[in-house]
Amino acid sequence: MKKELYVGVMSGTSMDAIDAVLVSIANNTFKTLAHHSNPIPKGLQNQLSSLCSPGENEIERCGQLDVLFAELIARTVNTLLKNETLLPQDITAIGSHGQTIRHHPDLPKPFSLQIGNPSILAHNTGITTVADFRMADIAANGQGAPLVPAFHHSVFKPEKGFRAIINIGGIANITILNSSSIAPQNTALKKEEEVIGYDIGPGNTLMDQWILRHKNEPFDINGCWARSGQVIPSLLKHLLADIFIKRPPPKSSGREYFNLAWLNNYIEGQPKDEDVQRTLAEFTAQVLANTINHETKNMSCDVFLCGGGVRNTFLRERIDSLLPKNKISTTCSLGIDAQLVEAAAFAWLAKQTLRRLPGNIQNVTGAHCSKILGGIYLA
Ligand SMILES: Nc1ncnc2c1ncn2[C@@H]1O[C@H](COP(=O)(O)OP(=O)(O)OP(=O)(O)O)[C@@H](O)[C@H]1O
Ligand SMILES: [Mg+2]
Predict the structure, then answer these.
(1) Which of 57, 66, 142, 313 is deepest in the core (most CB within 10 A)?
(2) pLDDT, tens digit, for every residue of 193-210?
């Protein structure tokens, strides 16, 4: 197969930026070539996050933002192409995740809704666009998430032993890869060759929401504010005992669940704001460490981190100290920049769709069958 270029686009729970990455895909190689990240303006962030919970005139607001967000994604992709002196016809397809405004995989009629209209995106870029990746998996009774494990499996699979990939985005998700597993390009994974993957709990989202409320800052740079506080043991204990954290996979989550209303259920009295931030950082680090210990038992397992949380130095220190036996680094040491893994995954998923290959892993999402994900929108 000759080399093809794809663009993957992601904007996650944190709503910090639209990340677009240019990748080249050939038979056995996957390479990230360039990227462009476009911060989401504050006003738009506010409009998007208010759409994440029920409110007035939602259909109109959703329709408007669907178009506006698609225009912003298109500008991000067009800038990336311009920077790389590429033309639309050089790109096979865009894989666009879109901005999640509701993710409800556990309702009687489950759904997951991403906006950033793919018809507008295809038209404004002149590039075939694959989007709406999650509903095909949900149609087959899956969680619709996480979808990145199949990509992790394709590009990060170890030659021997085990490897854990942990994305610390708004929500954190884990993938455990095992050298004996077979790539899902051509077949669904066999039961005994399972890849483990699920959302483990909050990554940055609670820390982001707490610092926004109390200091009007979008995130806790390098975890400095958290570092200045003390862990509140009773709060940490309650957070760790939360029903989602304790629940076995398959599971996935979002801001619909992990938000300040959820946190307020557990806060007692009037603790210092920085102590709550410190406890939230500890919560994220401990859930992550407990999950690794639980999934790997006593097997040796190298851990590779990715996502914006990698930049939170205090969080990194806490993770390192809670996992003294594991070698911990980032996906950069596996050849993909830690900030680009999620966007790159959607480029890969678009390739799967165009080739009529599955993108989900049944064991991860809980779907009844493997599915070709998403819809294809021609330019
Ligand atoms: N220097 C930093 N110090 C502390 N935290 C940081 C820093 N840089 C980024 N972050 C955190 O990373 C977050 C963004 O991470 P990322 O883009 O991976 O999340 P996301 O958009 O929710 O993505 P996804 O849902 O795809 O995983 C920011 O909201 C912030 O919390
Ligand atoms: Mg982001």
Answers:
(1) 142
(2) 679 999 999 999 999 999
